Structures are given as C-alpha cells and as structure tokens.
C-alpha cells in the first residue's frame, strides 16, 4: 500500500519569514513505520476499528460493521489497509475468504510498537517516556 500513498507535505516558515513546503518523508527520522502511523492513527474510522478489536478476542466482518457503524465498502477498505500495515490479523488469507466468515483480531504488539515509534519520533530517540505514561504505570 505504501507505493500508492502520496507523500504528505506540511508548511514551515523559513528563515526569511516566507512559507516553505517541507516534505516530511525526506526527514531522516521518517520511516515506513511513520507512514503507517500517519495512515492508521490519523484516521478516525481506523482508530475505531482498532479500539473495538482491542476490546474483543476476535470479531467477524459483520460484527465489526455493526459495532463501528460504517458502510461495507468503507469497512473493507479500512480492514485491508490495517491488515497491510500489520495491525490486524485475519484468520484466513485473502485468497481463501470468498464466501467464508473471516474473523479479525488485533496484532497488539504491532500497535504498541507503532505507538512507541511515534513517541520516539515526537520526543526524540533518547527522549524520556512522557510523564503521563509514568504516572499511570502500575507496579
């Protein structure tokens, strides 16, 4: 899916006070994980799918559709993207799904790894864990 994704561009103010485009994907810290983070966590429906799956062991397509409340074509597109980025797992490979009930589950360690990569990107490689995480940690 990455090959079809357009590079995001943001705006920065240059030293001369003029607005200069900055291509995020050219930053040395920007990686395929950062592209996945942007595409997954920057989308409300995909976040909803992850949250629903995180609360359940496995769910069928129909159960997900009912719980998330989005159209079939939209859900299909989001599930395909989430599977391509490795954050959800289907119990059947794509070529064997026709007419069969596929069950989806969260790939929790992948979601956690992406969250950690996002924090490293935002706060720097050697950055301390955010205080809110330290405050809520249980022993």
Automatic annotation (TrEMBL):
Domain HTH arsR-type: 39-120
InterPro entries, per the entry: ArsR-like_HTH (IPR011991), HTH_ArsR_DNA-bd_dom (IPR001845), WH-like_DNA-bd_sf (IPR036388), WH_DNA-bd_sf (IPR036390)
Superkingdom classification of source: Bacteria
Name of the protein described by the UniProt record: Transcriptional regulator
SMART domains for this protein: HTH_ARSR
Short name of one Pfam family: HTH_20
Listed GO MF terms: DNA-binding transcription factor activity
């Amino acid at each position: 899916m990455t090959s079809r994704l357009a590079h995001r561009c943001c705006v920065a103010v240059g030293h001369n006070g003029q607005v200069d485009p900055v291509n995020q994907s050219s930053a040395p810290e920007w990686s395929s994980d950062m592209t996945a983070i942007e595409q997954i966590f920057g989308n409300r429906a995909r976040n909803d799918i992850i949250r629903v799956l995180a609360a359940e062991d496995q769910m069928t397509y129909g159960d997900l559709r009912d719980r998330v409340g989005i159209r079939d074509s939209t859900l299909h597109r989001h599930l395909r993207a989430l599977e391509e980025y490795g954050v959800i797992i289907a119990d059947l490979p794509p070529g064997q799904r026709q007419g069969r009930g596929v069950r989806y589950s969260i790939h929790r360690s992948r979601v956690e790894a992406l969250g950690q990569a996002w924090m490293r990107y935002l706060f720097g490689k050697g950055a301390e864990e955010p205080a809110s995480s330290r405050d809520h940690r249980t022993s």
